[in-house]
Amino acid sequence: MARRAAGQLAIGCLLLVGGCGTPATGPSPTPAPSTTGATSSGGVTTPPTSSAVPSSAAPTSTPTTTAPSSAASGEPSPPVGSSSTATPPSSARPVPAELTAADLVTGLSTPWGIDFLPDGTALVTSRDDATITAVRENGDTTDAGRVDGVSPGGEAGLLGLAVSPGYPTDHTVFVYYTADNDNRIAALTLTDGSVSAQHDIVTGLPRAANHDGGRIIFGPDKLLYVGVGDAGNPSGAQDLSYLGGKILRLNPDGTGADGNPFPQAPLVYSYGHRNVQGLAFDSAGRLWAAEFGQNTWDELNLIRAGGNYGWPNTEGLTNDPKYVSPQRVWATSEASPSGIAIWRGSVWMAGLRGQTLWQIPITGTASTTDAAAPNQTGEPIAHFAQQYGRLRTVVVAPDDRLWFTTSNTDGRGSPRPGDDRILRIPG
Prior knowledge:
Radius of gyration: 20 Å
CATH topology: Neuraminidase
Number of strands: 26
CATH architecture: 6 Propeller
CATH superfamily: TolB, C-terminal domain
Low-confidence stretches: 5-90
Helix content: under 10%
Shape: globular
Distance between the termini: 17 Å
Strand content: 25-35%
Structural class: mainly beta
CATH class: Mainly Beta
């Protein structure tokens, strides 16, 4: 069942008011209607101010330098696949008015990252078991091995997974995982259905019990994009010398990609993030990211090279020109977003606390370098609200069917018979 929802229209950074450290201003969420198919639109009001910082995890260090604003450093060039003449998002096949979903796989433990091999087989990570499961299109599963050195606990463990764009020749998959003292990215070789030859390509990413980020994807430029949480150090998100609270853009060997915006921080693509767990590219080559708020606003952002997304100085919508304002915000009770995917002209976002699969239509085609672009999204629509419990990851399968996972065994949910599961929406 679907309902129109309380994701709020984002106001671009057009009103040059407020200063650094000024809390965000924006609309309060409209309560979600209880009638299926009802619609609502929120007015522009001032939300409650939230200046507190997380206390669930100790910071790893005290930052000593502050990142320059993207305006001061100049707007970097967009990545390959993004341009000022972006093509409209593709939605050749319509989305049914009422979606249905069916179990593909049941009995999984804390599924987190998913990506697909060229033959259509999915590889699925287990956060707490540190294992990788291969899932066939018919739902058959086999064990693909274990990642060494994983130290799970809280939100930490074996998180994102991405298949190399050169997999037909290099047989490589990449994982983001939590070790004893840091978060890491490793490359593994998949041979005869099992992973081996694990070697780390990035180490030293800040870790904590919460806010570990962990989503990794390859972009249309064949570079690896990585969401890294602030690891309980909010001020570090504004410090370019601290890799927490960032989106990274890497070569497959773990080095910073050419064209990244900050010479002094060669891995960093954007900053001022709290805890990005959702990354996806649309058909115009633009990068979208879903991000957990603290107590007030969860965010869906359109990512700009060198952009400062404001945390902890802002949460939610902002008129401060130093920061990039979100495309949409939700009350944290309605979303707490993790994975996202682009399917049939919309962003599809999994909600953990909100226990909802959100559909956010993509309505605009503005380049990510256009700071004054109007909002690029339509009214969000809620699907499967409270039907399956906590939802973690959303992916588009090679046959153009949408998969999403539950996350009821993650310590914060209420497992049901068969949890956790992968569900599939018919094509």
